[in-house]
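Hi D.,

Good news: the full-assembly prediction came through. Inputs first.
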Amino acid sequence: MKADGTLSLPTNTIPIQNAFFSLSLWPWGTDIAMASAMPSPNLLAFPLSADGSIAASGFLFGNATSSGGVAIDPSGQFAFASDSSQGVVYTYSRSAAGWGLLTYQPPPPASPYTSFAAGAGAGPIVTDPSGLLVYVANQVDNTISAYQYWGTGAELFESKGQFVSPYSDGSPFAVGVTPISMAIDPNGAFLYVLCGDGSLRTFAIDYYSGGHLARIGSVTLSGQPSGLTVDATGKYVYASDSTGVSAFSVNRSSGALSAVLLSPTISQSNITGVYAEPSGHYLYVSTGASNIAGALFGYSIGSDGNLTAISAQPLASPRLPFSMAVSADIQ
Amino acid sequence: MTAWLRVIGVIFSLGMLGSCGGSGGSTRTIQSITVSPSQATVVAGLTQQFSVSAKYSDGSMSAAIGVTWSSQDASIATVDGNGLATTHVKGATSIVATLGSVSSSASLSVSPAVPVSLSISPASSTVLIGTSAPIKLTALLTLTDGSSQDVSASASWSLANPFTASIDGSGNVSALRTGYTTVSCTSGSFSATAAFVVIAEPRYLYFMSETGRLASKAVIDSTSGQLRMMGYVPTGANNYAAFHCPTMDPAGKFLYVGSAINGGPGGEIQIYNIDPVKGGLIALAGSPFSQSAPVDCLEFEPTGKFAYAASATNSAGQLLTYSADSVTGLLTLVTSTNLTGVPSRVAMDPLGRYLYVVTFSNNYLQADAAGYVIDSSTGALTPIPGTPFPLSNIAGAFSFHPNGNFVYLADTNAAAIDTYSINRATGALTSAGTLATCINPSIVRFSPDGRMAYTACSMDAAHDPHSASVDSFSVAADGSLTHLSTTPSDDGPLDLTVDPSGKFLYLAEVHPYIHLFQVGADGSATSGLRFGVQPNSGMTMAIVQGASAVKYTPKAAYVISTGDNTY
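Then the structure:
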């Protein structure tokens, strides 16, 4: 990436097999991982060099029958992957040899185990910025499973009702419709869920209660939803649907979303995703379909949330771009 | 004025004229007038009062009324209608009084103006660390005529805190390290002081989480104060380690985390090398280092050669003295000093001269302040004469004011903050007042310039269980606190950390949040965002600072291209 947000063509395009999706990267981490719905091993991780280039070959691992998503935690040492067929989540750790499945040893006499219950159709998975909370969108039973993760072992401690005083409900939290995509506020205050009915729902996160989710609002998109992202400040949420890109400003106290009138409007069709990069300056929109050439468009994010096209659009033309992640340097 | 008063005034005026013009049928005339003093010498800028007496034809004398005053040379001195001459510049003039056809004069000699006071300009400076050019301070003598004279080159300059800044013979101050120092200047019999504050941009914040098993990191946005979590590193801490306290050496190269082992006599010290650019933490080989005694917060004297920590057990305690290797970061226990009670956190003099610790004895029915003089070359501690100093509050820990002249004790079990002034020559503590506060005030924290103090309370005075707050106070020159504001916070506040720019406060809570407070124009805290974090298990937080804010640069974009299975 260049400082102006434009993209130069990669020097190393890595051929991969299967239909990988769910690209996961902690912006200043050391690895990038992706998941595939194909039979296991269906997770693929690449170490990143200091300049951001990826190794020629990745490390294939994973235990899911059909992976629903993968997320690397903020320490860069752990990853979580959902299994959409089995409705469970696995924890992996990174070592010099690669990534390996972790086994949880509960207090005796219980037997050790390697997976943690989620819901039917366990799909997209996200961690909160601190690494304490893990959320899994269950796309069959239309719920979100919430876990606490304590950064040292396998255990994902599900935030069930009995453990989340003062609330009476607990994980899994009902969404009611298919959760397509999730994005977490960088401050950890809100979880945004893009739903199959075209709604963008906001949930308040309670860290004290182990990541309890309380639905606090919803807005409706114009078309079939496809992508969701939050800018680095947490002030703006961007969503895409079949009609284009929508922007919302966030009331930091209530979590309420208010539409930001984009000028000019962004009305691409066949959007596959929207991605806010971690420096907070740019937003990217990927488009494409099996029979339509893919493209990446870039926009600078204004202080009011408005988006201004970066010159020379599209920035790149990958075939059917499906998932995107951006790393950043800190100085 | 009412009509009656006006009438009385007229009558009175007529009476006066009568006394001048004659009465009882005889006419008395003025023969001469005399100005006194007849000559005067006055320093430029000061005044001289002249008066006039009149000699009458009947031989009587009295004060003359209705005299007109003038100065022969108004550039040297002017005179008002009452005979008050104001001198301006060196020279000589005559002050003339005229009454009717007679006049008289006095000679007024004006000598050069003389100094009356000394000041330093600017009176207060705040400089960002890394500023390469020295800050020029000017010593100004103010003279009697209101003029000023730059005596910077001839004045004698000194700094109270040589660790914060250095100064040359002309008043050029160079920032060395964040902190506060008083700049003193002497010229002749006059002296003046100014404040010099070195601030820094906040970059990274560290806190201990998950019962000390993780050291969590966050980037601080220097504009908004927003924390962006950067993940964590495993600490390898003993599962029974508790009361983790992260502090840094004065150079900011290493992070030290003291802790106690629950249920055991020992403690641990974690040591990390800090990457000042990217904020990374790299544990030193062997960290955490097992200790035979519990280790509280490690406080470094300003040279960084020695660190001190209280070591509290159930009924007694020690002061631990460590020598620090500035290259490797390793600590070596030099000596242990027995205390007469259970100590709280050590308070280190920002000037590096004294160390104080509150000790509790007699089943926590009595508290004293143990004070020590620090030998800067050996690190040895010598009790301050008069130590221990009895305290009125039986809880809390001292915190030093940035200028080194006061320590404050927040009564964490009650609702007061005590101020103690320090005799800088001896180190003796003297009570300087108590301020009633909200309930359970946390250790007092200060703005970099020392003008503001902050504490966090669990409840208000009415004991509302959901009335936790951050309270802001102004600090007077005599160290006294004045409450400015109460800002609501989350329940369960633990400890405040002031960022090195003084713009933000971060509140660690018993809940897994860090609460941001932004400092307003008047210095008061205003509530901002709160950030979900790994549960904070530390006693405080540590901030890495620098000359510039952290910058993010997009590095690489990664896209899965499912159309051709590339990436």
